[in-house]
Records
---
Amino acid sequence: MKNRLSRYRDQLPRKWRKLKPMRAAFGAATLALPIAVVASSGANAGVNLVVNASAEQTGTGNFPLCFGKYGYGNNTYSIGTTSKAHSGSKAIQVTISKLSSGARTVMTLENASCAPWVTPGHQYNLGLWYMSNTPNAVMVLYRHDAKAGWQYWTDLKNLPTAGRYAYASVRTPQVPANTDQIAWGVSVYGKGTVITDDYSTVDATVQAAPAAACSAGAACTRGAWQVMSFTGKVRAMHAILMYNGKVLLVAGSGNVATANDVFKPGSFQTAVYNPANGSVTTVPTPADFFCSGHIQLPNGKVLVLGGNAAYPTATHGYEGLKTSYIFNPVTDRYQRIHDLIGAHWYPSATELGNGDIISFGGLDDKGDGTAVAEYFKYNGATGGSWLPESAINEDFNFWGLYPAMILMANGELFYTGSHVFGNNISISGGATHVAVGGDGAAVYNISAMLHPGAAGDSITGIPGLQDTPGGPAGTDMTDQSMSILLPPAQSQKVMLMGGGNIDTGNPGTRLTDLINLNSANPHYVPGPLLPRGPEINQQGKQTAKLEPASDGKMYVSMVILPNGQVLETGGGLLDRQAPYIKEASMYNPATNRYTSMAADPQPRGYHSTALLLPDGRVMTYGNNPGDGSYNEKISIYSPPYLFHGARPQIKSVASPTAWHYGKSYNLKTNQKIVSAELIRPAAVTHQSDPNQRYVALSISGNGTSVGLNVTSNHNMAPPGWYMLFVNNANGVPSVAKWIHLN
Amino acid sequence: MNTKNIFGAIRRHPGRTLAVCVPLVAVSVFTGSTMASAQPEATLAVSPSAASASPAPYVPYFGGSVSGETRVVKNRDVPIKEPVNIDGCDHDYGTGSQCIPWHIPASSPQAACAWLKANGFGSLKVYGTNRQHLPENSAGYVCAAGA
């Protein structure tokens, strides 16, 4: 800026430059300019793509040209113009005077003449001046897909209340492929008035640094694996990343045979692995946590529920435990809390938007499927406790074993169809203990769960799942599949991948399924087939060049990465037996395509786990074939992004232990960044981690000091510890900084 | 000062005039305001409660609903009987930590033993019944040498 002003100054006649008052004038202008630029956050630094940006021209319905009114719900509102303009004589005003539900939105019209035209891969600063007397106003963004038409993209930033004109600016995510236009505006979803004026959309693309030559050979495009020289020491089916960066390898009896074929309580150990220095320490496991449920609480402690009371016999199945414990990452010790309502072996655990935990399914203390739901009421001061049966409006619906229950943006639960053991829940309507009307997946509205005496909650079947009885494939192959909420969580897309059946004669499937829970009528559609890979045996030796074209894999792990893609790794062809499939790929939700990656040298099938580490690497662990052996070797994967130049560094971030919903926090980095996200640390067992999620953070500003805007929706990012990653224009992520969202 | 005097002052002191006007123009350009449109600053009353409130969760709506059958659930607490082989294992054989497939993928008992051997199993004690009719010795072990 200084140089540009100097250049202009030099073009003036010498006699004018010699005038003292003239120098004073330029000095004042030089001061004024940065202030104005800061105030507008660069919105005027380029071409403003908004038509009728100041809303002065009138279009149809006496409303500003190229702006439209949208909305829904039960509310009383008015939308029009006001003379309280920031510039000119008009501004746009939205007022909601009564509100039961819904929102009212003003935004640029979704048409070819009005909506800004954009370039895929670019980012745009969206700016406006506003006044607002409600905190419930948010900048929303839509995009036009050249094939699919206009669609919701994301919300970007809540507008703080402002009694005088304030400037708000936020950068779009990188424009996806096939997107040619965007439309955006402000959605008001609370009682109050919001006045907006002087909209701007300016290209703010961060240029990638010149690509440094990658000298890592195949790792440049496929990444690289390293098998650690030490082991994890325990037969852990459960891996949980804690906010101190250590991995809790929870182990109970570990499916191990003892001399008399009876598991031996009191001798179990849990391992704490520190990926930063390679240390593995063990701590006592107080009960048999083999096949328990587990999840991080909002305070970062690990809640463990249920487990194993007895191994099966020829005539009797596994029996569940009803005990529960909390692991403290500071003291590295478990502490017992009061018991569950019932016993559970293979229970799920999902955190809700208020920090509470809900759990379903598994086998009870008699080896039967339990229909008892468990509810942990979290309390920030005391830690919380399991609610007694009298406090829960039990629906007594049996959801199977380790049912994958993903929290949706609206607070409902989505049962994806992924489960472990047995067949998927029945879909025949009218029977008891079933999800009805769908095809092995369901939306579960749990709004009455804490209202004893009220009517039950509703379950709505979700159609389209391929591998389910009555589905297109006509089989039942979602056992030991994995499903996750794809990145970013704001897109509300879920992918179910692979799976198999307890019948050893059925090879794992290549099928995947995708669902967009943001659509008006959510239903599964087929996803891209899993890539095939060579078959290996239990020792990792290749036994076939390529698995049959019709086969895929069960026990496939899906790990969300900071680049917004998903690593699928490991898996086997058959239930608990070789061959294993030595294959890994990166799935890109934006393109719906896989890119082949280097594969884990170790077989990873039944009782294997995979998780993202805070440094951007991926850890895999375990394998427990039918012969009872267990693989305690640790594999660490370095994705290609770790071989492509200097990583951006988070120099500082505001209030890392106290982030709040709907707020913005300053971030300082050593490079310009193009994206930032919160990734929830994994808590995975049996290819089940329904809480895994990547929450995109919109960015305000363009330099190395920017604002990060947090979603206002706690269902989008349930409270707790998250890994904050930032990514530069070369797709290289930082090392994570731990953030506590509450 | 009337208009005539203002223009006179500009003629007499062009430098000083610029010193005043240039910054004002710069500010007005970059802030979007104009001297001509100068008027009382627009304001909007904000209640203290609204000013201090956190935003409510924003949940977008997409104009539809799930299409499958919906049922309000209220079942009785009846455990669901699950088969003993829910894990796919035949616990008639082997230790509690072993999993002999409920259906060993083989065409004959001998082939089944070969399959088990290839997958890391040795001889297996029969704890229940020899449901898959594997070659059994007098000590109650299947797939043992000499069985």
Note: Chain A has a mean pLDDT of 90.
---
Amino acid sequence: MTTATAATAAAPKAHCASAVIEMIGVSKWYTPEFQVLSNCTAKVEKGEVVVVCGPSGSGKSTLIKCVNALEPFQQGDIYVTGVKINDPSVNLPALRARIGMVFQNFELFPHLSVMENLCLAQQKVLRRSKEESVARAMKLLDRVGLADQALKYPGQLSGGQQQRVAIARALAMEPVAMLFDEPTSALDPEMVSEVLDVMVELATEGMTMMVVTHEMGFARKVANRILFMDKGEIVEDAPSKTFFDHPRSPRAQLFLSKILSH
Amino acid sequence: MFANFDFGEITRNAPQLFFTGLAFTLKLTVLAAFFGTAFGTLLALMRLSGRAPMPQIAATYVNLIRSLPLLLVIFWFYFLVPFIAQAIAGSERPLTIDPFLTALITFTLFEAAYFSEIVRAGIQSLPAGQAAAGYALGLSYWQVMANVVLPQAFRAMLPILLTQTIVLFQDTSLVYVLSLEDFLGVAGNIGQRDSRLTELYLFAALVYFVISFAASTAVKRLQARSAITR
């Protein structure tokens, strides 16, 4: 991870201390020929819900995984609550503990019960006592409507239930922001809404969220801003209403015409 | 054909066969499997770490050990270790090392190479997102390994690890070349002393068969039960 050189980046912008997540000129290459992200710059302010959308392979998931350093990037900087995550001296586990992440394939730990899934990091990372972590876990399971499933194993739950447990697991760490990487893409259609309902509730409570999703209904309803990505670039960064009503770029217009036409 | 056989020979020597010989063999098997798995797991983690020179060191070790006959490694250790210990301790003559300890170290180092490949396959069989989910929660590398990756990898690989341990159980009989009192060694000694080698080797074969077969049957039943539902 090198800092942007003068040749490739315009005048380096100072990072904004108020933003929860700030990306400045982030670029990533899988190989020297294959660039997945090019010069991505965006901010997520406190309490904001930002939806990242765009065609498959546009780099949305890669970008969101860069935010908590699950994916390395070669150029640019990312700040989370003012902390530069690509600083080699940064304490990554401590930083990641403050950002919740929900994955496309849930990634609950199948060898642990639902309760153990929620308590593991609370106890190992935040050093909470067993009683405290169990109490918090129960509260969150209740909130996502799964208090009665605490002793089951992930394999015994439906996809929608598993994803709600995954959201509760992330919330148990009391994150400053939540990242959602296509949280409903692996779900059967009838289970999508139960997960979206939980996410809408979170958004209305003021959680800072960055959401990669194809659910344009969700985006219209709760997103403050939309990032539209194509071929590794953030093509459009606009308030939700502006993006849906008057998309500027032809690529966004084409994308919207395809997914909203039916 | 069994007319000249004296099976009383077995019952007369049963205490020595079981409490000296078989006890040695089982102790060596269990300890070598335990330490071999521990060291093998470390090798597997090194090999998957992606941080040079860790993978290269582990790969070289595994490839070297797997290319050598076990018997050669046993000899090599038995005759070399006293000199190595001498060099380390700086003493005047080669140190005598407890033969059991020599055998245990040899089998641990040898089996670790095989166990490491099993553990590595177990880790690689997990979806990559499992470790990512652990890291995303703020767990450190060792916490992710200890709480997320290895418990699942071991559960998936337990039948193969146990099968390898059954092979180890049979392989421990090779320590007879060091004149150690393992089960086969004791049986051979008694047989030679009393000129009853046929009876004792038949009996030894029976005992190895019963234990190995019972263990592999148990492993098969375990395998059917231990699958994780995803």
Note: Residues 1-12 of chain A have pLDDT under 50 and may be disordered.
---
Amino acid sequence: MNEPVDVLIIGAGASGAAVAWSLADTKMHILCLDQGGWMNPAQYPSTGRDWEARFFGDYSPSPNIRERPEDYPINDDNSPIKVVNFNGVGGSTIMYTAHFPRLHPSDFKVKTLDGVADDWPIDYDTLAPFFAENDRMMGVSGLSGDPAFPPTEPPMPPQPLGRSGALLGKAMNKLGWHWWPSDTTVATTDYEGRARCINLGHCTPACAQGAKASTDITYWPVALRAGVELRTHCRVREITTNEHGFASGVVYYDKDGVEQFQGAEVVVIACNGVGTPRLLLNSASGRFPNGLANSSGLVGKNFMFHPYALIYGYVDEATDSNRAPPTCLWSKEFYETDRSRGFVRGYTFQFGRGVGPVMEAVMSEAKGTLPWGADHHAVFRRLNGHRLSLAAICEDLPEEHNRVTLDPHLKDSHGIPAPKVDYTIGENSAKMLKHGIARAKEVLAAAGATDICVNCPVLYGGWHLLGTARMGTDPARSVVNEWGRSHDVKNLFIVDGSVFVTSGGVNPTSTIQAIALYIADQMKRRLADLLD
Amino acid sequence: MLTEPALTPAQRDDLRSVAAMIIPASSEYEVPGADDPKIQADILATLGRDTRLVAEALDYLARLAGKPLAELDPARREAVAKEFRATGGGAAATLIRVVLQCYYRDDRVLRSLGLELRPPFPLGYPLEQGDWSLLDPVKTRPSMWRRVK
């Protein structure tokens, strides 16, 4: 029999780690359960000669391809964008590009400003101190003074421009368009026990150097020292409730596959925009027949990705290719609404330095750019090490028909029903993608690139899983309130990307973690009457 | 743990033939073809989770060819390869990717490309700062984020 705890956090990724760290100073008994284990950087792909090949295998971003024991399958057949994630201590911060923009102030007021979707119940100013705290904890490199964003103070200097950044910067200057060195969680100096970046280049599938921030090496060591307990290889099946309609704990399978019950006074869900609705729907009971916290009927609905368009071409000059962190610059030229473009809201350009030889060969062969036969060698030598790329990361608007439900047949290795994703790209997003592709071609042309190719939408580009348990003040139109507490179950909190009301047009990890810290702060401020 | 069944001798022969069609040897660049014994051995040794799809692709290729690929005349072989690439779907893409990923980690090939024969870690790579004065015109732009109050 497990001793009941004060706070039970489900998921040790971006948001779960932040909440655990923040709540640790309450001295409550805090336990986190994660379905995965601790990662071993000595086994990360960049340590071996097969570093690129593993991206197609055990370090694929798709759980359906990766099939590690801690992964669960996701039926995303009915989506033009496939879900990608990582499961383990650190969650998807193990496997992300470390691009770390924040949502803009306008992103929280889309209804007021542009008449679409809904305003958030919180705003940028509310989150600002938590953004700053998270930047310090994760260790952000960047440059103050971006005219496209309110003032920020990244604790480390930006990544070098390198050859690729300089080529792209020149091209943007020719067009007179905004660009700026990206905020990233790649350490450019030694930082809080982390070694500085040495340009392994293969950042996305985990950093062997430890220069890229993932919560297993940022928040977790501090949280554990402060007394938080983290139990690994524990997969939660359902959240249980008592006769008062409160969460009483969870049923989970431990590392040996044995079913366990863990009681808790407060339950915090941090399982991402797919895992969280899956858990809530799997927690249906006689008391909550449509799933837990689902009186609004919105659990799993309004699912948002960021549709990506990737545009790339080849220049005569050598680029940095795989020998540097993949993302180096962003542009917010087309971020804020300009109705003359034919759509509302906007997108970020995220610039890439290039790819390694295997990725170049595989992508170019698939695209038809790299031929079979005698010409293969000459063409490959013209392409390899000469790629410049940029991606338009488009704001997705919430639509109820885009949703996460439970698959009636598919189950994970513990027999727990798996999630099913139904998703289509909305009209506004489609127009935005088209606009982004056209502008990106202009950028590449200005850089002197030829052989321009487009991947749209990026098939395995479903990194950002948002909106499936949205926050709001109206219990009929939202799942959690403005400080992350379930409207229906007053000791149940959600702190991950599920609570996003709209998606913004940027990578969301920074905002997800700022929201998690904000919710934890609200919990601490309200401890005396947290469950009233 | 289940192990993937190995490819049959006929499948291996066709794999070698199609690999040579994808990347033939080149005396100009002093590189082997993808049918080179060392590269083929690497492919077979590391097929792992890709074995099923690669076998499926080779079975499809065999159906298109009607006999071992190596026994077809060059024109017919080209036609079969083109059909295979166009209609082979995910299985064909997997086979091609497996050939490419083993070819482009071979020492002789990397040497010819001027790349170092090592993984990225632990040495990493140098990265030049670049010309930061390029940012000067952007710094002079007026603030462009949308105010909400």
Note: Chain B has seven helices and no strands.
---
Amino acid sequence: MSTDVHDIVVTVNGRRYERRVGARLLLSDFIRHELLLAGTHVGCEHGVCGACTILFDGEPIRSCLMFAVQADGHEITTVESLADGEKLHPLQQAMHECHGLQCGYCTPGILMTMKAFLAEHPSPSEAEIREALSGNLCRCTGYQHIVDAMLLAAKRMARP
Amino acid sequence: MKPAPFKYLAARSFDDALAFKAQHGADARFLAGGQSLVPVLNFRLTQPAVLIDINDVAGASGVTLADNELRIGALTRYRTLQREALIVRHCPLIAEALPHIAHPQIRNRGTIGGNLCHADPASELPAIMLALGARLRLRSAGGERLLDARDFFTGALSTALHDDEMLAELIVPLAPPRTGTSFMEVARRRGDFAMMGVAAVVRLGEDGTCRDARLAFCGAGDRPVLAAKAAAGLIGGKIEHTDIETAARSAMQEVEPHGSVHASADYQRHLAGVLTRRALKMARGRAR
């Protein structure tokens, strides 16, 4: 059968991209292989691990559970948007200081999940942070240092 | 871990979606939030020739209140329901269950209609629709029909939808005064599928006597299970200790769990009893 292709226009981290994509191309693969933004990681490819979490129109979603063609006309934010040149985002700085990562595979998904969460909950409790992290698997840290990092980041980001 | 090739059709209206479905029938699947469908596509457990994307169908999403009924568009996402004041105010049973459904990233995308059409017997919402006595509006190019939720689920991952039909809307009757509800489940981890869950609805008379009761279970068989005998036994009593014990023992017999690597069928029955006790006490307290 001939490949079903579609022309799409997406805005990723503020930059507009026009591409022709196959219907079955996952959004996660589009971001990594077509746009060469490899910061978004792919773990399980069935919506369990959370490594591929991005912001879709501002809300965290699993990019492995959408097709690139569905992103036509929409706005995507990936982990590459966080740092300002050499200056780390407060979330990244806190993860660094608190040892919130070891292998780092889950980190981009966690950062994008928590970026949206902290925007909505600027001073969360530890329990709320753990609940917010429940959709992101980390097999290295045992989560404690990630929770510490999020508490620190929330404190710093809440300051005027 | 990549889906097999398919043809992608984007529907902008119900008419588009239903015309596509009439044309392609069983070869086509509707793509709503995709949070259940895309994993099985990625695993190639299903390989439809056509996907009809209904995410941009106008008028398929949102909650309205009319004629003592809540009308919930099938494409309404869990996240929208969590933020929707009409749900929080008029249907606390749905609001109570939503945090148990997967994780924030899934709830941002998953839809209530997609959930019901996927008909996973461990899922919360099918049981809740039974407990609420909801009706489902099914549309096709040729017309529409209304179906009671209890007639919609025909088996594991199976529904009464015809090949040319789509679920368009859920209709939930508003609860009369002195109605109390409770949803509880036991899962191994937050967001996992429930090993057993219960949705309890009780309505009391002015003297505190139970006038109506419904107990619906998820994770309890190949489809959501209504424990009709357990509920009927509550009517006329005051939902006191012995009434609750009788209902719990009955519910343990009425559920039909299969058991899994995570929980034996016996343990699931035990959970049905425990949850019935807890949920009835909670619902009774809320009904007063």
Note: The radius of gyration of chain B is 19 Å.
